[in-house]
Specification:
two-stranded antiparallel sheet; alpha+beta; elongated; about 150 residues; 6 helices
């Protein structure tokens, strides 16, 4: 998980290496000094995240994760590139409260595969706004669209 997290989000995770001093393999993480982090680099759209109880200064150096315990791939991170791209379009329109753009995205006549991409991205956006604040108008729109699809 640590290798995948670093490769996917190098700005949020310290580089990790695999080493062997005997027949056992060890994971080593690049980090400087012993001072705990005073800040944590945050991605708006996280591909990997960790359990909130692990998000403490001792697990971060220079804003980057050094301890990958309880790290997991998010629903966003598990989605394909095209789904993530559509998700970001939906979220951007929602954050701007651009109902017309949301209607345009949802009423477009998609081909079969593009329709699957849209549905998955829309489900991710609905999930995102279920846990993150948005305006009541936008959430009502998502509720309506989610029930209609």
């Amino acid at each position: 998980m640590a290798f995948n997290a670093y490769k996917a989000e190098p700005k949020s995770n310290n580089k990790v290496h695999l080493a062997s001093f005997s027949k056992h393999l060890y994971m080593l993480s690049d980090w400087m000094d012993d001072a705990s982090a005073t800040y944590i680099n945050e991605n708006k759209y996280k591909i990997f995240d960790m359990n909130p109880r692990e998000i403490v200064p001792r697990n971060f150096r220079n804003g980057k994760r050094i301890d990958f315990g309880d790290t997991y791939r998010t629903a966003y991170g598990a989605a394909s590139y095209k789904v993530r791209k559509m998700f970001r379009k939906i979220v951007a329109a929602s954050e701007k409260e651009n109902i017309y753009e949301l209607i345009k995205l949802s009423s477009e006549n998609y081909k079969y595969l593009d329709e699957k991409i849209f549905k998955e991205a829309f489900w991710l956006a609905y999930l995102h706004f279920s846990y993150n604040p948005c305006t009541p108008i936008i959430f009502a729109y998502f509720e309506k669209m989610f029930n209609n699809r």
